[in-house]
Amino acid sequence: MPPHNDAPSPVPSYGWTGHSTVRQAAPNAVYSQPGFSDSFSSTSLDLNHDHIIRPLKPGVYVPTVAFFEEVSEDLDLETVGTHAVRMARAGVAGLTTQGSNGEAAHLSHSERNLVTKTTREALDRAGFTHVPIIVGCGAQSTRETIKLCEEAAASGGDYVLVLPPAYYKCLYKPQSMIEFFTDVATASPIPVLIYNFPGAVSGIDIDSDTIIELAKHPKIVGCKLTCGNTGKLNRIAAATRASTLTDDGSGFMCMGGSADFTLQTLIGGGSGVICGLANITPKACVKVVELYKAGKLVEAQKLQAVVARGDWAAIQGGVVGTKSGLVSHFGYGGYGRKPLPRPTKQEVLKYSDGFKELVAVENTL
Questions:
Q1: For the domain that residue 248 is a member of, what is the CATH number?
Q2: 335 lies in some domain
Q3: Chain segment 288-310, per-residue pLDDT in tens
Q4: Active-site annotation holder among 117, 216, 219, 224
Q5: Which Pfam families match (predicted)?
Q6: How many folded domains does the chain comprise?
Q7: What domain range includes position 180?
Q8: For the segment 50-84, what is each residue's pLDDT rounded down to a tens digit?
Q9: Whole-angstrom Cα distance, residue 169 to residue 338?
Q10: Is residue 224 among the annotated active site residues?
């Protein structure tokens, strides 16, 4: 786990009112709000009078894999759709497109939009019209990030998940992240979740004070913490009165970013996880949440250990290992786009073995 390198801070009291609306932000709203004067609930309401937002509920969210034809590397849209439906049938709370597993860095704007559109249409056809889609929209400029947010909404996305820019890391000032996320959230047609993933952005690790401050913005409705810092998660969840399995709280979604600390996230007051492992074993990931909610802590702890061992294979192999595991255990998945390497026979065996114990549990659920 990464070191706890953000300074502890006192947890303020903001006195949210518990309203059920996601309201339209005024320019520079994060500076004009005296406190958390409104709820961050993601109830199905219309932000811009033409876009219905499906609610985010605590639970497991899957950052879905993008699938490609083996030779041409064109998008395999049929598999994109069938995989999304498999995830929904397993009981996940929602899907995320254009994440690391979705190879967003390898897709053009039009391909990103096509993946999200295909995912939405497949879910709707299968009767999962209520399942929300979060769309990854990180880019290096504020302008392009906002453009991606607009395209995400037009393609059927309900929320956007935004990484901080990192290319000019050495030139950014302490206020730069506040300004970036404020500008993006104010301009985005759909609500924003902050994505803290230091490994993907040159080590930029947004501290709890910054996220708590940004959470005052009426269109910043959650965060994903792939940093693995559960202390940070605890501080943010407490300060924002995050939604939990048993309490709607403010509606703010404080999400862990990996399946290997699902139980820790829930115990610490978080809202659930957005985890790549669920691409392989969605039912097992959901089961941890269900056991915790039912008060079966011993059983939840035992299953969490199995999930954590399986997640280690996913963490080590990234999208290459995840796709390899899908092929080995479920007969589909294929390969990543070049220059991602194809796994060797030895690596295929390693990934298959790494997921074997957890897949055995999945097949019993």
A1: 3.20.20.70
A2: no
A3: 999 999 999 999 999 999 999 99
A4: 224
A5: DHDPS
A6: 1
A7: 29-294
A8: 567 899 999 999 999 999 999 999 999 999 999 99
A9: 27
A10: yes
